[in-house]
Amino acid sequence: NAIRALSLIADTTCGGCLPALTGALGAGHPHVRVTAATALAERFAWVRGDSAAGRAALDSLAAGLRDPDAATRGACARALLARRGEAALPLVEPLLADSSVYARVAVLQALALLPAAAAAPLLLPRLAPGTPGFERSTAAEVLATLKAAAAVPGLRAALADTSLLVVAVAAGALAELGDS
């Protein structure tokens, strides 16, 4: 029921949404926390919130970066990047070394919300062969989304990857960047 209630909140624009979602970040069930953090990445939640509610939400999202649930950590990172942009990087960047590949990939995906100049330096090292394949392919996808021309050499190198999936994603990214 709590997840359904949060979903219904997401369908409205209301003054009470921001405090309600912020409160849900402290819920006992991880599905409720991740749903609240996911909703806080969307503009609707912030439209009618006052500055005190906004500060409380940002503080709760920052605290959520240490949540025991990897999906919640990733969703909090995305919400912070969506709301604060590059200013959130000092808080979010440490999650690129998270113990969970799922949290790391969520952060990589969220970097698509930033300008290419800010995101590419964090994404390019993830193309390296020693990085898990999920991260390598996600980094290539996000670099293509950002139209990061600086990524072309790294994406070309990824064409020699041992993972066919990474090779396919890198080839697609190069095609999107107009590199044949």
Description:
With 180 residues, the chain is mostly helical. The chain contains 11 helices and no strands. The protein has helices spanning 2-10, 17-24, 30-40, 51-64, 70-84, 89-92, 101-110, 116-123, 133-145, 152-158, 164-176. Helix 3 (30-40) packs parallel to helix 5 (70-84), helix 4 packs antiparallel against helix 5 (70-84) and helix 7 packs parallel to helix 9. The model has no long low-confidence stretch (mean pLDDT 90).
Task: Give the helix/strand layout.
Blueprint: H1 2-10, H2 17-24, H3 30-40, H4 51-64, H5 70-84, H6 89-92, H7 101-110, H8 116-123, H9 133-145, H10 152-158, H11 164-176
Mean pLDDT: 90
Measure the end-to-end span.
51 Å
CA-based gyration radius = 17 Å
Report the helical percentage.
Answer: 55-70%
The major sheet is characterized as: none
Proportion of residues in β-strands: under 5%
SSE topology string = HHHHHHHHHHH
Describe the global form: elongated
- Identify low-pLDDT runs: none
State the helix count.
11
Number of strands: 0
Assign the structural class, choosing from mainly alpha, mainly beta, alpha/beta, alpha+beta, or little secondary structure.
mainly alpha
